[in-house]
Amino acid sequence: MAETTTPTFQRTFTIGGDLTVNRMGYGAMRITGEGIWGPPKDREEAVRVLRRTVELGIDFIDTADSYGPDVSEELIAEALYPYPEGLVIATKGGLTRTGPNQWPINAHPDHLRRALEGSLKRLRLDRIDLYQLHRVDPEVPYEKTLEFLQQVQEEGLVKHIGLSEVDVDQIKKAQEYVKVVSVQNKYSVDFRKWENELEYCEQQDMAFIPWNPINAGNIDELEPLNKVAQKHNASPYQVALSWLLHKSPNILLIPGTSKVKHLEENYKAASILLSGEDMEELEKLRKDE
Predict the structure, then answer these.
(1) Where is the NADP-dependent oxidoreductase domain (predicted)?
(2) β-strands 180-184, 19-22: how paired?
(3) Model-level pTM?
(4) At a CB cut-off of 8 Å and minimum separation 6, what does 273 contact?
(5) Cβ(281)–Cβ(224) under 8 Å?
(6) Where are the domains of the chain?
(7) What class is the 2-281 domain?
(8) Local confidence pLDDT in tens for the 289 residues of the chain
(9) 34, 77, 146, 249, 254 from 17: Cα distances, Å
């Protein structure tokens, strides 16, 4: 029967019980310069990409103060403010920048306060819908960071709180302080280190937001992916994204790009319906680290 050979997937997910978004979102890291540093080479194209996201029906955009730094958030406001109703902008704090591709961690409350206030100003918002701790800082007591997140939520500066690159124990610790509504960890069809965290998030009705959802470094060498892609007249990148949509109903996708053409190609992944046989074929790629 068709029901057993062609799994369907839920098109939307509700973050925190009240923010319903399409599961195909957009990650705004790559609308910056090389090394995620400085302004983009083509500012006009970056603005076009952001405006095209909304035209396509994408209503979840993920960014961070460290993308640029500041550049990504500034461009989002330039392109989209005043924001269309229903658009959810998620940002992050907890990393600093010392140069291209350099990401020192700083989750001290003082730094996070400055980061959050800067994000609010750049995005022209009074409150961030989803504020995510970019990294747990080994130099700062985790409890102090969590107390800060709890405080700014109570102040009304943040609606919902998420975490990034955390394990189950760290999520549970955070839940003692705040309601955690999302986890953003590296995850893809061929990188499954965080499988337990994905399962825990699904059990807890938290969004799981994979970063680096397309392993661009080796994707063309992954035979099962190419095999399924040919069957669907799609690219391996599109199949890798579609697999994530089929994998778990709480996964939100945030593929990033600096070009409208690539944005539209990524978006088409939501139209690909993988069969049970396809999913079994792609399971051959599983790696847990």
Answers:
(1) 23-286
(2) unpaired
(3) 0.94
(4) 6, 7, 8, 242
(5) yes
(6) 2-281
(7) alpha beta
(8) 334 445 578 999 999 999 999 999 999 999 999 999 999 999 999 999 999 999 999 999 999 999 999 999 999 999 999 999 999 999 999 999 999 999 999 999 999 999 999 999 999 999 999 999 999 999 999 999 999 999 999 999 999 999 999 999 999 999 999 999 999 999 998 888 999 999 999 999 999 999 988 765 666 668 889 999 999 999 999 999 999 999 999 999 999 999 999 999 999 999 999 999 999 999 888 765 5
(9) 37, 26, 21, 14, 20
83 is catalytic: no
- Which is catalytic among the residues 26, 67, 131, 237? 67
SS (H, E, C) the chain: CHHHHCCCCCCEEEECCCEEEECECEECCCCCCCCCECCCCCHHHHHHHHHHHHHHCCCEEECCCCCECCHHHHHHHHHHCCCCCCCEEEEEECECCCECCECCECCCHHHHHHHHHHHHHHHCCCCEEEEEECCCCCCCCHHHHHHHHHHHHHCCCEEEEEEECCCHHHHHHHHCCCCEEEEECECECCECCCHHHHHHHHHCCCEECCECCCCCCCHHHCHHHHHHHHHCCCCHHHHHHHHHHHHCCCECECCECCCHHHHHHHHHHHHCCCCHHHHHHHHHHCCCC
- With tokens 């102040």, the residue in question is 155
Q: Using CB atoms within 10 A of its CB, is residue 112 exposed (0-12), middle (13-18) or buried (19+)? A: buried
